[in-house]
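Researcher: We plan to redesign the surface later, but first we want a full-length starting point. Tokens attached.
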């Protein structure tokens, strides 16, 4: 590990202290507080606040402001996860019962809303001049809108035909990339006034990180490497993925029609045998290798961005982050 940043692990105690302080102010019902603490105790990689705090440090920002902002980003992320678990029907999250399974669907909806509210209450603690604070607040709110748009698209595509890789990455740009862009650009907005000239590069970094993260997530789902979830969980739910989008570019005629029919068998009727057959199609068509190559291409594009090439500290941190993300798929890359 470099000495540039906190790690995603040792960042959490500082974030928890901030969250507990805001929760102690008493504007949430005790039961809501219980649900918030339950959701956050489940852990997670906490990559987004790690990015936010480190980007702020690289661009000479105030560390306490960066912690408030990074915590806000993580709370938005968790709010989206609570709602995502309801929409997907996922009964576990990070090895424990998902919020809706533990507290009911109705209360989990309330929890997700509470986490969004908590995120902006934490953000308010950032000490910035009013104009810059308003600009960052507006960017954060637009990000939530982009995240919602991505999720709307995913649910829509679950009920329709499989989509192309380009269409899928457009979906991912909202569903996953939005929060990575918020962490990257938002941290620099927080650290520096007048950094508009590099916003495009920062957004590009966030988009590439979001694409890499989602491609990685789609691959490890097939191999059963997601914590607490069996292989092919996304397939069972009929979710679009980089693999399902790539496979329809390889199949033609009846093979393509048969695959699409298999993929959209209702969740409750999708047997383990059927899921294994879909995974076998992925391997037989070579799309796992193709997805791994796409992951590496996204990484290469990110490191070709001018801001990354010109800032050695940024380049060093992104390499560290890529090494972390690649751990789960590194062995797969050399096997395929």
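Model: Full-length starting sequence:
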């Amino acid at each position: 590990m470099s000495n540039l940043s906190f790690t995603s692990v040792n960042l959490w105690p500082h974030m928890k202290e901030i969250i507990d302080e805001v929760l102690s102010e008493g504007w949430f019902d005790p039961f809501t507080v219980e649900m918030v603490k339950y959701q956050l105790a489940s852990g997670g990689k906490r990559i987004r606040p790690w990015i936010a705090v480190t980007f702020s440090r690289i661009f000479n920002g105030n560390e306490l402001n960066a912690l408030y902002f990074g915590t806000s980003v993580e709370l938005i992320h968790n709010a989206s996860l609570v709602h995502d678990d309801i929409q997907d029907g996922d009964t576990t999250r990070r090895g424990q019962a998902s919020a809706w399974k533990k507290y009911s669907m109705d209360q989990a909806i309330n929890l997700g809303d509470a986490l969004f509210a908590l995120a902006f209450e934490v953000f308010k603690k950032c000490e910035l001049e009013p104009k810059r604070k308003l600009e960052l607040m507006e960017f954060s709110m637009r990000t939530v809108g982009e995240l919602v748009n991505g999720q709307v698209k995913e649910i829509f595509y679950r009920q329709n035909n499989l989509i192309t890789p380009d269409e899928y990455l457009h979906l991912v740009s909202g569903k996953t990339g939005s929060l990575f862009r918020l962490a990257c650009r938002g941290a620099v907005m927080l650290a520096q006034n007048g950094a508009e000239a590099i916003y495009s590069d920062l957004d590009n970094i966030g988009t590439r990180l979001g694409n890499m993260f989602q491609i990685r997530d789609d691959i490890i789902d097939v191999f059963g490497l997601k914590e607490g979830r069996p292989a092919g969980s996304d397939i069972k739910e009929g979710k679009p993925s980089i693999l399902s989008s790539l496979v329809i570019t390889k199949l033609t005629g009846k093979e393509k029609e048969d695959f699409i029919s298999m993929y959209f068998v209702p969740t409750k009727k999708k047997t383990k045998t059927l899921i294994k057959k879909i995974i076998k199609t992925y391997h037989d068509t070579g799309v796992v290798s193709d997805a791994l190559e796409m992951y590496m291409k996204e990484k290469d594009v990110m490191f070709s961005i001018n801001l990354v090439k010109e800032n050695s500290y940024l380049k060093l941190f992104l390499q560290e982050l890529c090494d972390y993300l690649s751990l789960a798929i590194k062995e797969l890359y050399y096997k395929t």
